[in-house]
Amino acid sequence: MLVAREYRSVAQARQVLGSALDRAGTPSLFDRIDWFESLHAHCFSTTDVRIFQALEGECQAWLFLLSSGAGRLGALANWYSFDWGPVFLGPLDETVRRRLIEVIAQSLLTDSAQIDLYPVAAASDMLLDAFRRAGWFSVRRPMGGRHMLHLNGRTFEQYWAQRPGRLRTLIARKNRASRFTLSIADRLTEALWRDYAAVQERSWKKPEADLGFLHALAQRESAAGTLRLGFARLEEQPVATQLWTVENGTALIHKLAHDQAFDGASPGSLLSHAMFAHAIDRDHVATIDYGTGDNGYKTDWMEERETLYRLDFFNPRRASVWLPAARAAISALVG
Question: Which residues are in the BioF2-like acetyltransferase domain (predicted)?
Answer without folding.
Answer: 179-298
